[in-house]
Amino acid sequence: MVLPATRETSTRPNFGPASRLQHSQPGPGALLQAAVDPLVSIATLGATVSFFGGRFDGACLILALLVFAMTFPGSLAGEAETAGELMLDIVTGWLAIVALLLLLGWASRTLGVFDQRVLLAWALGTPAALFAAHLLLPRVLPRLLAAEGLRKTAVIAGANELGRGLAARLRSNPVHGVRFAGYFDDRAPNRINENVLGTIGGLGDYVRANNIDIIYIALPMASQPRILKVLEELRDSTVSIYFVPDIFVFDLIQARVDTIGDLPVVAVCETPFYGFNGLVKRISDYVLASVILVLIAPLLAAIALGVKLSSPGPVLFKQRRYGVDGRKIVVYKFRTMTVAEDGDVVRQATKNDARVTKFGAFLRKTSLDELPQFINVLQGRMSVVGPRPHAVAHNELYRKLIRGYMIRHKVRPGITGLAQVNGYRGETDTVEKMKARIDYDLAYLRNWSVLLDLQIVLKTVVVVLRKQNAY
Question: Cis before residue 298, ω within 30 degrees of 0?
Answer without folding.
Answer: no
